[in-house]
């Protein structure tokens, strides 16, 4: 099984930015933990701050991977283009968020991506990614 994790803008700063919201861990450390937890799953990782690059990665992996877990960051709330890319591919996509977006600013309460995704997981910290992977594995 092959699962692609895609992180959007500012998630390269995990462990450094807004620790009260996102915690102390960087994603690379967490990714190592995920790969150890799921040795039979090939977990690929991609991060970009650029919307078009996220769309390119969705196109690249959206027909050959078994699942995609995406945290599109702030693009979640603004990008029709990413939503269209998710709708255009065959691979199931799960939207995840580290924070509970519904406890934050009002603009974060709406996802442009959710309707094109298999499901949405939010508010469980980094564990949101594991929960997404668990769903894809059990599908």
Class from secondary-structure proportions: alpha/beta
Oligomer: single chain
Order of strands in the sheet with most strands: 2-1-3-4-5
The end-to-end span amounts to 12 Å
Q: Compute the gyration radius: what is it?
A: 14 Å
- Low-confidence parts, pLDDT < 50 over ≥5 residues? none
What is the tally of beta strands? 5
Rough outline: globular
Measured as a percent range, the helix fraction is: 25-40%
Percentage of β-strand residues: 15-25%
Describe the secondary-structure layout.
Blueprint lengths: L1 E6 L11 H4 L4 H11 L4 E6 L3 H11 L5 E5 L8 H9 L4 E5 L21 E4 L4 H12 L1
Parallel strand pairs: 1-2, 1-3, 3-4, 4-5
Helix pairs in contact: 3-4
Brief write-up:
With 139 residues, this protein is α/β, with parallel strands linked by helices.
Q: Could you characterize what this model shows?
A:
The protein contains five helices and five strands. The chain has helices at 19-22, 27-37, 51-61, 80-88, 127-138, and strands spanning 2-7, 42-47, 67-71, 93-97, 119-122. Helix 3 packs parallel to helix 4 (80-88). The chain is globular, with a radius of gyration of 14 Å. The model has no long low-confidence stretch (mean pLDDT 91). It has a five-stranded parallel sheet, sandwiched between helices. It is α/β, with parallel strands linked by helices. Helix 4 (80-88) links the parallel strand 3 and strand 4.
């Amino acid at each position: 099984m092959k699962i692609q994790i895609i992180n959007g803008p500012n998630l390269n700063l995990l462990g450094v930015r807004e620790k009260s919201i996102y915690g102390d861990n960087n994603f690379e450390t967490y990714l190592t933990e995920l790969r150890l937890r799921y040795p039979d799953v090939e977990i690929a990782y991609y991060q970009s701050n650029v919307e078009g690059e996220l769309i390119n990665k969705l196109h690249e992996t959206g027909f050959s991977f078994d699942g995609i877990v995406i945290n599109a960051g702030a693009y979640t709330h603004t990008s029709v283009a990413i939503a269209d890319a998710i709708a255009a591919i065959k691979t199931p996509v799960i939207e995840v968020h580290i924070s509970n977006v519904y406890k934050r600013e009002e603009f974060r309460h709406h996802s442009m991506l959710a309707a094109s995704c298999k499901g949405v997981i939010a508010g469980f910290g980094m564990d949101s990614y594991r929960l997404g992977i668990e769903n894809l594995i059990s599908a």
